[in-house]
Design goal:
This protein is α/β, with parallel strands linked by helices. The chain is built from 14 helices and 18 strands. It has helices at about 15-20, 120-130, 150-155, 175, 200-215, 230-235, 240-250, 250-260, 260-265, 290-300, 310-315, 335-350, 385-395, 400-415, and strands at about 25, 45-55, 60-70, 70-75, 90, 95-100, 100-105, 130-135, 160-165, 180-185, 215-220, 280, 305-310, 355, 430-440, 465-475, 475-480, 485. The strands form 2 sheets. Strands 1, 2, 3, 4, 5, 6, 15, 16, 17 and 18 form a 10-stranded mixed beta sheet that branches. An 8-stranded parallel beta sheet has the order 7-8-9-10-11-12-13-14. Helix 8 packs parallel to helix 10. The longest helix has 16 residues, at about 400-415.
């Protein structure tokens, strides 16, 4: 990238509009600086970035984006080159400039399990993947964030998080918990002793309180049947076979959980006792009955949104090698027909957004040598790869850049209540990813990977399209591919 020297001041708005001819300039008032924190690969806090493909104002086309003090100050749409001759500019040619990704569901495991992942490695991987905002789901922290005291442990680092709640817990008073933007409940126990499974009655009670604060409730929707012989599976079927794990966690679990939520979803309708609250289903895997129930709830006026994850859109059960526990996650990756149906639902708007559900662990917990799907830790390590994975597999379904920005930026920002993120618009925070959709790369041993443990990712060895060139967080260039894939900071607060 070349940065031209700035000579001369910016013209007044009317004069600029007259001089630009084909270009249109959109400007916002300057706000308090968000940059200047010494965490940038560029020595400037006032500059322009430009490209032939900028995703902004509901279109994709030539534009230049002015960044000042960490914010997007103006956008020149159209023939920007003559206008920028005497201004500091990074011209990315035909690369795509779009809003940075907002991942509303990732596990960074700190405090307590930084050996699995941590803020240092997790935020570096996010920056290298074009993710500019992370919402940490701190279930895998130790201790889990279920009380005021454990919340304080998390708040030593300035980031957004989900506040976990557990049945009958009185450790985290509602008046304090609900100050955070997102609440989380889980209908499926995950082997974390201080965070047991909840129930629909507890959820309905919590929604009444959340309605007062207009906060969403994020739910892992799987329900174990009342009669379940999980202990017998290990002895009867091959634990190395992926089909064994698939049978152990059928779509009926998701269906049962969502059926249990029907009354709670109805409560969020206009006039319901939880009007103002919002139910969000995380990592939906079942694209059949479970999805149908959620579609019905939406059509009836319930405030419900749904996410799925790139691994459900990229992989199918038929492709998972036996013994390769890197592919184990919950809910599980299902068959190819289900994958196609998830894509169709995403394109039709029945699934609202995407998240990584980045859920790493220490390598020994994946039991990769043993290959036992029933005993291995479940979770896909994916944070750095979600943009190219989504694009690579979505191309055959005809996805557009605007849809990609909606699923990964605009709608997640709305869910998290981030009013000045999720779009390339004047007045918004300058959180931006620049990438080349056509550029292919092989995720081999030579590719820089910033996760704590690179060898546990199911994406290793894959051929992908969509190389990340640059990531800007609050106007700071925190990742640059042409600077030998350099990340600016050891830990990024994003």
């Amino acid at each position: 990238m070349a940065m031209a020297a700035a000579k001369g001041r910016v013209l007044p708005l009317l004069a600029v509009a007259a001089a630009l001819a084909a270009a249109l300039l959109y400007r916002a008032p300057f706000s308090k600086s968000l940059g200047g924190e010494g965490c940038s690969l560029l020595p400037h806090d006032h500059f322009w970035i430009a490209s032939e493909r900028v995703v902004t104002l509901g279109r994709v086309g030539p534009a230049a984006v002015e960044v000042k003090g960490g914010l997007i100050n103006a956008i020149a749409v159209g023939d920007y080159r003559s206008f920028l001759l005497r201004r500091p500019v990074v011209d990315y040619g035909d690369a795509v400039i779009m809003p940075g990704l907002i991942d509303v569901h990732a596990h960074l495991d700190e405090p307590g399990r930084a050996e699995w992942e941590g803020f240092s490695t997790g935020t570096r991987a996010a920056a290298a993947g074009g993710i500019t905002t992370l919402v940490d789901m701190p279930l895998n922290s130790y201790p889990s964030t279920v009380s005021e005291e454990t919340l304080k442990l998390k708040l030593r680092i300035n980031y957004m998080l989900m506040v976990l709640g557990r049945p009958r817990s009185r450790e985290c008073p509602q008046s304090k918990c609900t100050r955070e933007p997102i609440k989380f409940r889980r209908l499926r126990a995950q082997g974390i002793n201080d965070f047991p499974m909840t129930n629909s009655t507890h959820i309905e009670e919590g929604l009444v309180t959340l309605a007062k604060y207009k906060r969403p409730l994020l739910i892992h929707a799987e329900r174990i049947p009342d009669v379940q012989n999980e202990d017998g599976i290990d002895g009867e079927l091959d634990p190395k076979a992926y089909t064994t794990y698939l049978k152990s966690r059928p779509p009926a679990w998701e269906e049962a959980a969502i059926k249990d939520l029907q009354r709670a979803m109805k409560d969020t309708e206009i006039g319901g006792r939880s009007e103002g609250a919002h139910i969000h289903i995380v990592h939906l895997s079942d694209a059949k009955t479970s999805l149908g129930l959620l579609k019905d709830a939406k059509q009836n006026g319930a405030r419900v949104s749904v996410e799925t994850c790139p691994h459900y859109l990229a992989f199918s059960a038929e492709e998972v090698p036996d013994g390769d526990t890197r592919f184990k996650c919950a809910p599980p990756i299902r068959d190819s027909t289900n994958r196609d149906n998830l894509w169709e639902a995403l394109l039709d708007g029945h699934i609202d957004m995407l998240s990584s559900d980045h859920s790493p662990s220490a390598p020994d917990l994946k039991l990769m040598e043993e290959g036992n799907f029933l005993r291995a830790w479940g979770g896909i390590s994916s944070l750095q790869f979600v943009l190219p994975v989504t694009w690579s597999h979505g191309k055959k379904y005809g996805i557009s850049l605007n849809q990609l920005a909606s699923w990964w930026s605009e709608r997640p920002a709305m869910l998290a209540g981030l009013k000045k993120k999720g779009a390339v618009l004047p007045g918004y925070r300058a959180d931006i990813v620049v990438w080349k959709p056509e550029a292919q790369f092989h995720l081999d041993d030579s590719h820089p990977v910033y996760h704590k443990h690179r060898n546990i990712s199911a994406y290793l060895g894959k051929q992908l399209s969509g190389k990340i060139l640059s990531t800007f967080v609050g106007g700071n260039l925190v990742f640059a591919e042409d600077k030998h894939a350099k990340v600016a900071c050891d830990t990024l607060v994003i």
